[in-house]
Amino acid sequence: MTGFASGQGASDGFSWTWELRSVNARGLDLRLRVPDWLPGLEQKLRATVGDALTRGAVTLNLRLSREENTGQVQLDTQALQAALKSLSAIELEARAVGVALATPTAMDLMKLPGIVQAAADVTEPTVLAAVVQADFVPVLADFLAMRVREGAALEQIISGQLDEIETLVTTAQQQAKDRLPQMETALRDNLNRVLANSDGLDEARLAQEIAVLVVKSDVTEEIDRLMTHVKAARALLAANGPCGRKFDFLMQEFNREANTLCSKSQDSALTATGLDLKAVIDQMREQIQNVE
Question: What does the alpha-carbon distance between residue 96 and residue 202 come to, in Å, rounded to a whole number?
């Protein structure tokens, strides 16, 4: 689920930069930082990203700025006419009292407030929003391409871990068979001690307890389930589409069976294999956190 992409764009006196990144998360968590004065842009970007992704903590930043004015100005004719009328009135009043005024130049008039203004940006926010949204398409494509590359590498890692798990389960299966004679001898010795020191023992109850001990030491079911989980995991790797949540559940099942195998082993070699199995399962669980 990790990924990163960035991009830049410019149009009609505006420039912007994109930054799109994601890290691991149980679900899809979208966090967008987009200028709120561009109408509808955040909602459209959220929908676009949401359609492309199903898992991960995703952050999208759009930094938009207005470029510095290049010196273009415009003349406010109404303000100029008002200023000229005011100057004419002032000259008349000055002449009436015998005061001579210097003739103002064009530069003097331009310095008056409101006569000359910087050219206004005529770009409509809705038009700019559409342009910016279109510029996001290649950024998202780069982001998805990086996630695909990461996923291909991750698939190889998980596939190797499944091979290791399968090898350990096969070893555990053989060790479980090898321990049977030793377990039978131990069970027979314990049974003889019980019979030698017990008078009037209920044979039915004794048979029931023996059956319970046998069930508690039998790991056939755990080994079979582990093999089934390996096959299910390989099927998920081969399938198209998101599979991270299914893998999460499957890892819980892997861990549960490995724990049970260790608790029922009653054999040092089988216990060691079970611990190795748990270690590999935990390593694979960490990798699964990156799977969408």
Answer: 138
